[in-house]
Amino acid sequence: MATRPAVLERDGDVVGADGYRRLVFSQPADQYYVTVRHRNHLGAMSATALTLGAEEIALDFTLATTPTYGTDAQRALTGGRRALWAGNAVRDNKVLYTNTNNDRDAVLTQVGGVVPTATVAGYFNTDLNLDGVVRYTGGNNDRDLILQNIGGVVPTLVRTEQLP
Q: Where are the chain's structural domains?
């Protein structure tokens, strides 16, 4: 029905692109599902429709008590918090380590495709851990995050976005 660009702050808060602490929509008051997406993460959606209107509501997708649509739609973090699954460098609604159009090859291509120890600084979909540097190998690399988020043991597994 409606979308808004927003800024994801380091502490997990989502604020308007203008810095305003809440997102404002012009849709009529009604029941709506709320979805959160990020440039290289799998999106998550509220499990039920929420009443949205003129009154401000808070929806915290980081809480384990906030039900989401689908199965295993978010990654469990230490301390009981939840986050979106990272690793969707190709932007195809799934995280793949192997096979055609996998996210791992996108990271290698971003660093030049020949020297896997090379790095590239900048704002890229292949910067999966959001540290401002694309790394294929070494500490804090973006490739390992893909493997961890599909399950960590079997590289042929696929993590699929849980949106209808």
A: 94-160
